[in-house]
């Protein structure tokens, strides 16, 4: 009887292990994360299964897929047909202005159905440059304001913007506000009540009610979007918080970040991304019309940059941000200048950077010398030796914390947005980037990059190999968790 009971237990454990392994393969496919989960399920069958089904699987992720896809597909049918028709011809007619990056433009069109258009683009370095422009544009709104942020703080700049939103709502301007429920978790009820009582429609994205059982760090909306009257938009790395403004007294350290202001048809793509998120998180059904997507005047003064907007998230079949980064790097003919505060690349990006350096391109990586996440910084550093050995130049920013997410390729291609060069941005978060083709803007962004290099310390392969064993071990251990950081 004892032997029979033991046999039943052993069979049950093996059955649980096989079921968990099959579920992992179906959920995650052939990925490093799948391998890590499989090892845990095999080595500790019962514990591993419990951990995977409580923490590894996000059941709300499956629901977010169905809800988000419906909203996106609805907008896709009503909007995309209006302005994709001429993109192929625009690509053909503007080959010199694309600077040899027509393959990237075609990838974004085919993968994300994002059109190419002529726009006026303004580079905004740091919060002290961005927020005065934002406040001016919000004050000028006549029809609607759409604003969406991962982090929105109840501080001086947060309240200044809140006051403008409430005042504009009182003037009859339609104001919609999306905040990520985790990133903006410090927004209090009083702040949100003031918005709503003032006529602002406010909605959290993907509310987290049981954070410890819902993988609360996963599937967050990392986008930062403002759209004013359908013709002016903002996108980039700067959240709404006083710490992004270096003129505010009492900030712990200098915060270096990058944003862009866009005027022109590309704002339609920002609008599309916002409305898809709004229809999902607010449970409303905002139908597109000419008021939300106004015709942009053809004679836009200073519209010299071609722009595409790339969105990605767990509701997409593939990561458009990763594919666009990879294609841009792989297509480089002269240089690749990359800035990322959290650098945990997948194998494709890692190999693309090494290939570019090994074929004689000037490849430079700018990362934080000090980070707001020591563990992520340690994992990032585990990749440096392989890059240095291939000829990539790596710089550690010393003036403060660099939070910019930018990529410069050759003389014409720039990418500025919300996506980090890491696995979380590629696979888990909802992200949005502006891809800008134009020599003038690229030159401005390159100048900013070189100025940042001037505030950085270059590391060499020899220097990196002479780190202490404790530092090397710490990076290797952190890298083991890179798939979940």
Record the SSE blueprint.
Blueprint: H1 2-28, H2 32-43, H3 45-56, H4 59-83, H5 87-93, H6 95-98, H7 102-112, E1 117-125, H8 127-140, E2 144-149, H9 156-170, E3 174-180, H10 189-197, E4 201-205, E5 225-228, E6 232-236, E7 254-256, E8 258-263, H11 267-281, E9 305-312, H12 320-330, E10 335-339, H13 347-358, E11 362-368, H14 374-381, H15 384-389, E12 393-397, E13 400-402, E14 406-409, E15 413-417, H16 423-427, E16 431-437, H17 439-454, E17 456-459, H18 461-465, H19 469-480
Parallel strand pairs: 2-3, 3-4, 7-13, 10-11, 11-12
Antiparallel strand pairs: 1-8, 1-9, 2-5, 5-6, 6-8, 9-16, 10-14, 12-17, 14-15, 15-16
Helix pairs in contact: 1-2, 1-3, 2-3, 4-11, 5-7, 7-12, 8-9, 12-13, 14-19
Structural commentary:
This protein is α/β, with parallel strands linked by helices and 485 residues long. The chain folds into three domains: 2-57; 60-92 and 120-302, Endonuclease Chain A (Endonuclease, Chain A, 2-Layer Sandwich), CATH 3.30.870; 320-484, Endonuclease, Chain A (2-Layer Sandwich). It contains 19 helices and 17 strands. The chain has helices spanning 2-28, 32-43, 45-56, 59-83, 87-93, 95-98, 102-112, 127-140, 156-170, 189-197, 267-281, 320-330, 347-358, 374-381, 384-389, 423-427, 439-454, 461-465, 469-480, and strands at residues 117-125, 144-149, 174-180, 201-205, 225-228, 232-236, 254-256, 258-263, 305-312, 335-339, 362-368, 393-397, 400-402, 406-409, 413-417, 431-437, 456-459. The strands form two sheets. The chain has a 15-stranded mixed β-sheet with strand order 4-3-2-5-6-8-1-9-16-15-14-10-11-12-17, sandwiched between helices. Helix 13 links the parallel strand 10 (335-339) and strand 11. Helix 8 (127-140) packs parallel to helix 9 (156-170). The protein is globular, with a radius of gyration of 23 Å. The N and C termini lie far apart (48 Å).
């Amino acid at each position: 009887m004892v032997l029979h009971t033991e046999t039943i237990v052993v069979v049950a454990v093996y059955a649980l292990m096989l079921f968990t392994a099959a579920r992992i393969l179906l959920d995650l496919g052939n990925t490093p994360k799948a391998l890590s989960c499989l090892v845990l399920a095999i080595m500790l069958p019962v514990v591993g299964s419990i951990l995977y089904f409580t923490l590894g699987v996000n059941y709300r992720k499956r629901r977010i897929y169905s809800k988000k896809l419906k909203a996106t597909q609805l907008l896709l049918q009503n909007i995309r047909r209006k302005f994709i028709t001429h993109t192929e011809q625009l690509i053909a007619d503007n080959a010199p202005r694309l600077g040899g990056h027509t393959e990237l433009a075609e990838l974004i069109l085919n993968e994300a159905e994002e059109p190419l258009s002529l726009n006026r683009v303004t580079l905004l370095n740091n919060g002290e440059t961005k927020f005065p422009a934002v406040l001016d544009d919000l004050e000028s709104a006549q029809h609607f304001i759409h604003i969406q942020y991962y982090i929105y703080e109840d501080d001086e700049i947060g309240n200044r913007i809140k006051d403008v939103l409430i005042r504009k709502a009182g003037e009859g301007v339609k104001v919609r506000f999306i905040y990520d429920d985790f990133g903006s978790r410090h927004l209090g009820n009083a702040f949100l009540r003031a918005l709503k009582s003032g006529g602002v429609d406010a909605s959290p994205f993907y509310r987290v009610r049981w954070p410890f059982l819902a993988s609360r760090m996963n599937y967050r909306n990392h986008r930062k979007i403002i759209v004013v009257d359908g013709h002016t938009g903002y996108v980039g790395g700067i959240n709404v918080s006083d710490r992004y403004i270096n003129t505010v007294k009492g900030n712990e350290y200098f915060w270096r970040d990058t944003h862009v202001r866009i005027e022109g048809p590309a704002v339609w793509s920002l609008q599309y991304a916002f409305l898809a998120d709004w229809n999902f998180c607010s449970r409303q059904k905002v139908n597109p019309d000419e008021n939300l997507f106004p015709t942009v005047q053809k004679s836009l003064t200073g519209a010299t940059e071609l722009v595409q907007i790339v969105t990605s998230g767990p509701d997409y079949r593939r990561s458009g941000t990763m594919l666009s980064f990879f294609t841009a790097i792989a297509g480089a003919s002269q240089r690749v200048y990359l800035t990322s505060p959290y650098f945990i690349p997948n194998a494709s990006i890692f190999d693309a950077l090494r290939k570019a350096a090994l074929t004689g391109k000037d490849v430079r990586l700018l990362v934080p010398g000090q980070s707001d996440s020591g563990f992520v910084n340690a994992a990032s550093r585990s990749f440096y030796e392989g890059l240095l050995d291939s000829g990539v130049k790596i710089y550690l920013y010393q003036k403060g914390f660099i939070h910019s997410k930018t990529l410069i390729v050759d003389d014409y291609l720039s990418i500025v947005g919300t996506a980090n060069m890491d696995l979380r941005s590629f696979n888990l978060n909802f992200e949005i980037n502006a891809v800008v083709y134009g020599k003038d803007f690229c030159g401005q962004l390159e100048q900013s990059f070189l100025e940042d290099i001037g505030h950085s310390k270059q590391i060499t392969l020899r220097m990196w190999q002479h780190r202490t064993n404790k530092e090397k071990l710490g990076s290797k251990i952190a890298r083991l968790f890179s798939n979940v950081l």
